[in-house]
């Protein structure tokens, strides 16, 4: 491909013109052109491999289903067809798509200043830190803001190593902590790790939910002289399929880490900020970690925002050289405005309670479907609106996800467990949409059962 500056400028301007045109005024022919070009552009400039995994390609018929707009728990494609969103952007849309209060806060800050100077003190980042310090469990007080969950875990790993002077980590099987090289080392699935080995050294993986295995791994590391900086786990494993640990798991982790001088990191990127029916996942067991990672919902589904946070005692190792960890765009004013607005919405609308009550409602209905279609739905589990459905095979899991798409419901499997299909909608989703989703889900089950 040869450089063509004039063409690049004209194409940039063409798309900008579309963005500036009210969505209802874009002609149907232009929307169809967008469909065709989007497929071509993914194939030629992003990754053609993605196209065969997108249900919007494989299940849409003679055309690609291209996302156009959304509101609340409804997404609309370029042809005006509406989809019930129970995927929630993998936990991104806890407040729903385009929550007006969050969008308004981001727009207001955009009109004021979209980024910070890097030299003057920025008030929104500091204020967001204060607000979170009063929400986070225990004595967690300080934090660093970045853009993604994997960056938050990366920063937590770095902080743990700085504080303890040790290099090792204990992670869990089937864990998902992100895909940059540090968090990838903690990953609990071989297919993402193997092509990139070797990763960081001195990382041990143990079964999730087995506190005794954690203690044994720490003891083993100490016996051979490998220092362990931290144990990291998700309060509830998200990508493994909403795996809930035994009730004594997190309290025991806290005891074990205290006993051996190991930090405890809670990866709350997916479980935090209301998703599981409490403010934070660890609140189910009244446990305070040493370091906590947030992301996804923190930016309100409007601007990427994440962070890692710790107690004053742990954070002090960052103070002699505050540039040991830095970012150019992380915690920018628009992201912080969106995060502050999300927190306000979360508390004002009591999203944790909504998640808890709606989750209980959905699980009860799914248990009914499980009894009715035992050869299709194998298991249901979850807390709040982080719900996993297990099916007998990977292929059947795909049948369910694709069947739902053809019935205009968005859902997907998980990165770690292909047999699991997630139900992870906005915490604001209405019961009318939940009921309609369940009707369409039963229709999928009925269709699959008829072929068995």
TrEMBL record:
<dbReference type="InterPro" id="IPR015424">
    <property type="entry name" value="PyrdxlP-dep_Trfase"/>
</dbReference>
<dbReference type="GO" id="GO:0030170">
    <property type="term" value="F:pyridoxal phosphate binding"/>
</dbReference>
<comment type="similarity">
    <text>Belongs to the class-III pyridoxal-phosphate-dependent aminotransferase family.</text>
</comment>
<dbReference type="GO" id="GO:0009447">
    <property type="term" value="P:putrescine catabolic process"/>
</dbReference>
<dbReference type="GO" id="GO:0042802">
    <property type="term" value="F:identical protein binding"/>
</dbReference>
<dbReference type="InterPro" id="IPR049704">
    <property type="entry name" value="Aminotrans_3_PPA_site"/>
</dbReference>
<dbReference type="InterPro" id="IPR015422">
    <property type="entry name" value="PyrdxlP-dep_Trfase_small"/>
</dbReference>
<dbReference type="Pfam" id="PF00202">
    <property type="entry name" value="Aminotran_3"/>
</dbReference>
<keyword id="KW-0663">Pyridoxal phosphate</keyword>
<dbReference type="GO" id="GO:0033094">
    <property type="term" value="F:putrescine--2-oxoglutarate transaminase activity"/>
</dbReference>
<protein>
    <recommendedName>
        <fullName>Taurine--pyruvate aminotransferase</fullName>
        <ecNumber>2.6.1.77</ecNumber>
    </recommendedName>
</protein>
<dbReference type="InterPro" id="IPR015421">
    <property type="entry name" value="PyrdxlP-dep_Trfase_major"/>
</dbReference>
<dbReference type="InterPro" id="IPR050103">
    <property type="entry name" value="Class-III_PLP-dep_AT"/>
</dbReference>
<keyword id="KW-0808">Transferase</keyword>
<keyword id="KW-0032">Aminotransferase</keyword>
<keyword id="KW-0670">Pyruvate</keyword>
<dbReference type="InterPro" id="IPR005814">
    <property type="entry name" value="Aminotrans_3"/>
</dbReference>
<dbReference type="GO" id="GO:0031299">
    <property type="term" value="F:taurine-pyruvate aminotransferase activity"/>
</dbReference>
